[in-house]
Request: fold
Amino acid sequence: MGKNYKIEDKAKLLWGNDLHKNSIITPHCNQLAEIFPKRWNESLKGSLLEIGCGSGADLKIFASMVKLTSITAIDLGSNILNLAEKYSKNQKITIKRGNALSLDFAEKSFDVVYSFGIFHHTSDPILCIKEAKRVLKPGGNIFLYLYSSHEDMFFKRIGIFFENVIMNIFKYIPYRFQHFFCVIFSPICWMFFTVPSLLINFLGFKKFSKKIPFFFGSHPFSLIGDLKDRLMSPVNHRFSKLEMEKILMSLNFTQIDVKKTSSGLYIFAKR
Reply:
């Protein structure tokens, strides 16, 4: 219980009160729409639950979808206060505080469950998936993004190794100093990872360039948010494609489709 509380408290501080409280980040749901275009278009109707709504970037897109008759979005932190106020006059949207490990909803409540990058930061990602399935209606669909173990990608494995080392050190450092180090690390990572990736891409090896960590950096301090998201996280669970497929099969999901990319695992499954 003590460990779970520490993870939850850090999650509230990092995402609820820091990264997601006021800033709007780039929507993530478009990535799943691109990877599963047919299933995404066919599934996004009826009632939807977003687990971990963050700054509301995806919620804004869901709110514009006319086929969604009701949208419920939950998150741990105080970021929900701004979102609740923003959508207070939208009758089809409900925003409330909630925990992915113990969803405060009845069984078979939603047609669609969506969660991007949340479950791998909890104490028990598999329990999160079980909870998501519990609140899905029979025949309902789930869309997820989770960290990959990148077991076959050398450069990514190097990044994961250093990520784990720094995370273990950060456990003993006050929050404000963790933030400071992420600011310092950003130009270093940009120089050692992003710049070589840009050079490789320029030489025509676009696919290979995206296998390098932080290939998406736009300037030396553009990686601060991503570094905080990873290094200051209380925990980062990672799965291989095969592991996730076996987990979903053991939970009796059907039509399981796990797409592995250089970014992570994109998941579709039906209850």
In short: The domain at 2-149+238-270 is CATH 3.40.50.150 (Rossmann fold). The longest strand covers residues 136-146.
